[in-house]
Amino acid sequence: MSVVIVGAGPAGTRAAEVLVGAGLRPTVIDEAPENGGRIYQRQPTGFHRTARALYGFEAAKANAIHAAFDRLRASIDFRPRTLAWNLRSGVIDTICDGKARAVPFAQTILCTGAMDRVIPLPGWTLPGVFTLGGSQISLKAQGCAIGARVAFLGTGPLLYLVAYQYARAGAQVAAVLDTTPFSTKAAQAFGLMRGGTTFAKGLYYITWLRAHGIPIIEGGTPLAIGGDGQVESLSWRDTRGITHEAAVDAVALGFGLKPEAQLADLAGVPFDFDPVQHNWVPRRDPSGRTSVEGVFLAGDGSGIRGADLAEAAGARAAWAVIAARGLAVDAHAVARLDATLVAGATFRAALELAFPFPTQLAADMAVDTILCRCEAITAGELRAAANEALATLPPSEVNRAKALTRVGMGRCQGRVCGAAAAEVLAATLSCPVEEVGRLRGQPPVKPIPILPAEAA
Ligand SMILES: Cc1cc2nc3c(=O)[nH]c(=O)nc-3n(C[C@H](O)[C@H](O)[C@H](O)COP(=O)(O)OP(=O)(O)OC[C@H]3O[C@@H](n4cnc5c(N)ncnc54)[C@H](O)[C@@H]3O)c2cc1C
User: Fold this and answer.
1) Does the C-beta of 29 come closer than 6 Å to ligand 1?
2) Are the C-beta atoms of 445 and 403 separated by less than 8 Å?
3) Ligand 1 centroid from CA 267, angstroms
4) Edge to edge, what strands does the sheet with 172-178 contain?
5) pLDDT reading at 452 higher than 80
6) 41, 151, 154, 438: least buried by Cβ within 10 Å?
7) Which residue has its alpha carbon closest to ligand 1 atom 22?
8) What pLDDT does 390 receive?
């Protein structure tokens, strides 16, 4: 039986490369029309921008990943536009162009990447509000800016990178509002310097933005996105308590990344709360092997480590699969990969600590803020349900809150609101966020069409 890789980003590409090198023919599934994943997403047919224009400093890495994947095409079973929407014992359920198909596997490597973490604020459901990742995809995939005058709000390296990419592309960047104060970042300077050129690039983006007169506000508290049927303004409070407002027609927001780990969840992989990432992360050993027979994890879907380490983790998980199949393992290659993964961990941890998830912002969410936009549940409704449950039930957790309020029960299955909902609940119950748990993955992991009976 085949090895199935879900995700054709940096992790999936390097996993496929190692498996093909060992004489295997893996199936590679990706819901996107082409390979590349998030960072190295390929432009649609008919677009002819240069790698430099699309990927900036990462052009050479993007070219290398694309070339590696192109070399593999004849040796793998690549299934683009194919969503893996469920995982049960030894089988992945997929859908492609409306056709459902069950794909059996002996081993699977889940390389499903990450997505933005969101904290709702008043006005975030207005047309013109995007996640940071969404605003970048708009630029990379379609060559479109999300607005003519855009504010970038949140925290993390992606905040500065996307603002820079927008400004370079000719969009007007009204402001970059980083919820993390400068002092928090400065405290991690030693660990950040271990990032070498990656750290240098981050400094360059910030310096370039400042040099081009783009206001960067550090340690600010976002208050509201204003507008009547469309984004018209962003207001915030600075560290001195003074309120500001900028006229904008679009806002991109994101507070770091979280693993897309629903398939691992459906497979039965246990999860642990990682206090540094402030994320629930599927449990795996350093090679990517999990406690579930045949299920391996790599890349950001197994814990946020960035694109370079995603490549190494993909290759490493492939060697673990090769070992599980009883084939010869290149011990030198494995040792090199293990060393790369260990060396990168210090920088990654510093990065997470330098841009912490602003839990207080979620905890302080105004009562009438829409928390779960699929089901239109406000922060106040969740708090009220939690207080009620406190009186009648044993310690509450987020799945119980979902049953009581429908928070996280809509089309996104809590992928968007889950992290913030857990913070609101934990603050209401006065307990650490890990004690309220996490929303369990449910199939389908992303919306799928209702199929005719014979196709299912
Ligand atoms: C929107 C976004 C933009 C980013 N931009 C940058 C950037 O500019 N620079 C940077 O350094 N880092 C960026 N990052 C982080 C960077 O993308 C990751 O570190 C890196 O891409 C991780 O590689 P990966 O192979 O683990 O996952 P990815 O590159 O994310 O690849 C995962 C692939 O899996 C596919 N997939 C996921 N779930 C399923 C499913 N259920 N069925 C089928 N296919 C599935 C996706 O379509 C995707 O192609 C970004 C992250 C996000 C979320």
Assistant:
1) yes
2) no
3) 20
4) 129-131, 250-255, 149-155, 172-178, 216-218
5) no
6) 41
7) 307
8) 66
Mutate which of 17, 18, 27, 39 for ligand 1 pocket (most atoms within 8 A of beta carbon): 39
Centre of ligand 1 from the C-alpha of residue 181, in Å: 27
CA angle 416, 419, 424 (to 5 degrees): 115
Q: How far is the CA of 162 from the centre of ligand 1 (A)?
A: 15
CA distance linking residue 170 with residue 326, whole number of Å:
54
DSSP 8-state symbol, 439: P
User: Above 80 in pLDDT, residue 84?
Assistant: yes
Which pair of structure tokens corresponds to residue 207?
């310096």
Q: Which of 74, 19, 6 is nearest to 330 (CA)?
A: 19
pLDDT of 454 reads 52
Atom number of ligand 1 nearest to Cα 314: 25
DSSP 8-state assignment for residue 232: -
Q: Mean pLDDT over residues 88-100, rounded?
A: 94
Ligand 1, atom 51: closest residue by C-alpha:
38
* Band (158; pLDDT cuts 50, 70, 90): very high
Structure tokens at 111: 């390389």
113 in ligand 1 pocket by Cβ < 6 Å? yes
Q: What average pLDDT does range 150-168 have in this prediction? A: 96
Contacts of 242 (CB under 8 A, 6+ apart): none
Q: Which of 82-86, 381-385, 436-440, 442-446 has the highest mean pLDDT?
A: 82-86
Is the CB of residue 256 below 6 angstroms from any atom belonging to ligand 1? no
Would you call 25 helix, strand, or coil by DSSP?
coil
**Beta strands of 161-249 (E only): which ranges?**
172-178, 216-218, 221-226, 233-237, 243-247
Instruction: Please provide the average confidence, as pLDDT, over all residues in the chain.
Output: 94
Ligand 1 touching residue 165 (CB < 6 A): no
How many angstroms separate the alpha carbon of residue 212 from the centre of ligand 1? 29
